[in-house]
Amino acid sequence: MDIDIGISKKDRTAIAHGLSRLLADSYTLYLTTHNFHWNVTGPMFNTLHQMFEVQYTELALAVDAIAERIRALGEPAPGTYSAFAELSRLEEPQGVPSAEEMIRQLVKGQEAVIRTAREIMPVVDEADDEPTADLLTQRMQVHEKTAWMLRSMLAN
């Protein structure tokens, strides 16, 4: 059955492609954050272990919301590691970095997700796609706050 929600097929496809990149970045950040939760060591262990758990749990919910929006627009959501690796701008960490380096890498990951979300906004705005605009705004708010909190742990 055709989709008739007031957004053209061309715009829905473009928005879904942007959201697929956001999904890939978010899932890669989820996996990195979960990895760091498991492997963090040092004097900040308990604080970071708990903080990373809160962050990866939030990301797990976010990837579902992003994928469901892609589906609501009538496009398939990517869902494999190879698809995510192709679409994501985030790089996987190598080895087990120090706790401080984990924080730095997560700040960079949070900021990359924000940039991806921001890049989608022009086509979303042009198409008057308020549900996607709302999703993107919420995601940017969460990632900006998380980046700030992580960055604050590095301040002298």
From TrEMBL:
GO terms for molecular function: ferric iron binding; oxidoreductase activity, acting on metal ions. Pfam families: Ferritin. It comes from the Bacteria. Residues 19-155 form the Ferritin/DPS domain. CDD domains: DPS. Gene3D superfamilies: 1.20.1260.10. PANTHER family: DNA PROTECTION DURING STARVATION PROTEIN, GENERAL STRESS PROTEIN 20U. Belongs to the Dps family. This is DNA starvation/stationary phase protection protein.
